[in-house]
Design a protein that fits this description.
The complex is a heterodimer of chains A (382) and B (150). By secondary structure, chain A is α+β, with helices and mostly antiparallel strands. Chain A is built from 1 helix and 16 strands. Chain B has 150 residues and is α/β, with parallel strands linked by helices. Chain B has one domain: Periplasmic binding protein-like II (D-Maltodextrin-Binding Protein, domain 2).
């Protein structure tokens, strides 16, 4: 009996053990599952926190970006250059030249209205008065409001500008700022056949022609030699420029400017231009012609072709240039051959060395060579 | 003989030109992105270039294009400029500067300091287009990748 009881007790204990063992294992599994779930939740929370931190960082960055834009009450940009000129020109001397300080002020007045001005200080201007009688005792250099216009631009593809603007003609008349062109000298006909600036109203419009874009400029102005408030005649000048982007990197166009000047001489200027700008290679050429309706009917004309090539920080350029101020006289032609080497210290700092060979059809004028060394900087966060 | 020399010179210039035009490769794939509500399909590099050179100002549904760029020093911008625009980023920046300084730019790109800012702007502005590294937008449903530069 006692033996039986012992056996029964042992059996019961074994059964208890067998029953308890799986229940202990089940609890461990459950705990593991819970831990895994907790880990997943922690991971999720971690991702959320990371996302939130990322967003907060972007918020901060955007705020700084917007604050930066807001703090720019007026956007100021521009350029400055100083040069040394070795010249063989008769009656000229080698010299340092503090050539340009041009400041551009742009103010977005409303979403669709903008004020754009360019003030140019050329050759470090100085005006000094005589205190005794307020007359000018000393004046040097040029101080020039080169551009000042109010712009209305309801859409991206057209705008109207009223005030003083660069005469839209060809390429060089618009795109000629020293940090962005390889030479310090301009083509010989520049500022002569088309005036440098025009005081009036200008309509810019862009059209899509199939796969190309046609940019147009149409304008009326006082006429050359009639700046600001000093229009000396009743006549108004009119002009136009068209430019067609024919294909990637290739554009061409034409320009016209007609006026009756202060001597009542009717002048009509025509121009044609071509630009190939692809990869690091740039070819630009312009031909201009002006008919001056004087008694003899004189024409003046000019042509240049400029080739430039960018290799890393270097730009190599060459230009052949011709201007003939009177096609009725064979000896009035001026030729210039230019070679230039630019080094871009940064995208807004350029060092230039330029060689010019000037030749004249008139044998009484001495041909001469010139070397210009310049340092040019662009100002502003462009 | 001079004609032959001229021909050789012209061929040499074009060969150099083609060499310079070949895109620079960077390690990180670059994704060109638009807003998720922009109905445009995949764009070709030529179509993107036209936008970034102001030859295309509006999307096909008339919404104005808003262009985003990274800073000139950014590696992604260099990759994008070389591959899509066919020029160094610095040269492109100079060209924009010239257009801006002369006030001839119709729709200049807005330069942003970081990819995160571009993603944010593109995800909130319907007409926006920008480029960022592909990994930065892989799981972002607010923007759509329309072109990838490997």
């Amino acid at each position: 009996m006692r033996r039986n009881a012992k056996t029964t007790a042992l059996l019961l204990m074994a059964l208890c053990f067998l029953w308890a063992a799986p229940s202990k294992a089940g609890a461990a599994d459950e705990r593991l599952d819970r831990l895994e779930q907790e880990m997943q939740e922690l991971k999720k929370e971690n991702t959320e926190i990371k996302k939130r931190i990322g967003n907060a960082e972007t918020d901060g960055e955007e705020l700084r970006h917007n604050m930066g834009l807001l703090s720019k009450l007026v956007d100021v940009s521009g350029y400055a250059d100083a040069e040394f000129v070795f010249t063989g020109q008769q009656d000229e001397h080698n010299k340092f030249r503090v050539r340009h300080l041009s400041l551009f002020f742009t103010k977005d007045i409303q979403k669709e209205w903008k004020l754009f001005t360019e003030i140019e200080f050329e050759d470090a201007p100085r005006i000094e008065s005589n205190p005794a009688n307020d007359t000018v005792a000393k004046s040097q250099g040029t101080l020039f409001v080169e551009q000042m216009y109010i712009e209305y631009h309801p859409y991206m593809n057209w705008d109207v500008r009223v005030g003083r603007y660069l005469t839209p003609a060809g390429i060089w008349s618009i795109y000629r700022y020293p940090p962005y062109v390889p030479t310090q000298t301009s083509p010989l006909f520049y500022k002569v056949i088309f005036p440098e600036v025009a005081d009036g109203a200008l309509l810019r419009n862009s059209f899509n022609l199939m796969d190309s874009v046609l940019d147009t400029h149409l304008y009326v102005a006082n006429g050359s030699g009639n700046p600001g408030n000093t229009d000396r005649n009743q006549n108004k000048a009119a002009g136009a420029r068209v430019n067609l982007d024919v294909m990637h990197g290739l554009s061409m166009g034409a320009s016209f400017y007609g006026e009756k000047d202060n001597q009542d001489i009717r002048r009509a200027s025509y121009g044609a231009h071509l630009l190939y700008n692809r990869a690091n290679f740039k070819l630009q050429t312009e031909f201009v012609f002006r008919h001056n309706n004087t008694s003899g009917g004189i024409n003046d004309r000019g042509l240049y072709a400029q080739l430039s090539y960018d290799i890393k920080n270097w730009t190599l350029a060459g230009r052949a240039d011709w201007y003939d101020k009177n096609d009725k006289v064979s000896k009035d032609a001026h030729y210039r051959y230019t070679g230039a080497l630019n080094y871009h210290f940064a995208h807004n700092v350029v060092g230039k060395v330029e060689y010019n060979r000037n030749e004249f059809a008139d044998r009484s004028v001495r041909d001469y060579n010139e070397v210009i060394m310049a340092i040019v900087v662009a100002i502003g966060d462009l | 003989m001079p004609a032959r020399k001229t021909l050789i010179l012209v061929l040499l210039i074009f060969a150099l030109n083609l060499l310079a035009a070949s895109p620079a490769r960077s390690g990180e794939p670059v994704a060109v992105i638009v807003n998720r509500d922009n109905m445009v399909g995949n764009l070709s590099p030529d179509e993107i270039r036209k936008m970034y050179t102001n030859n295309t100002l509006n999307w096909s549904d008339g919404v104005p294009v808003i262009l985003y760029d990274l800073s000139v020093q950014n590696q992604l911008r260099e990759a994008f400029s070389s591959s899509v625009l066919g020029k160094d980023a610095e040269r492109v920046a100079e060209e924009w500067a010239h257009l801006k300084i002369t006030n001839q730019a119709k729709n200049p790109p807005v330069t942003m300091k970081s990819e995160a800012l571009i993603i944010r702007r593109v995800s909130t502005e319907r007409g926006a287009i920008g480029y960022v590294s592909l990994s930065a937008v892989r799981n972002n449903s607010d923007v759509r990748v329309i072109y990838t530069i490997q």
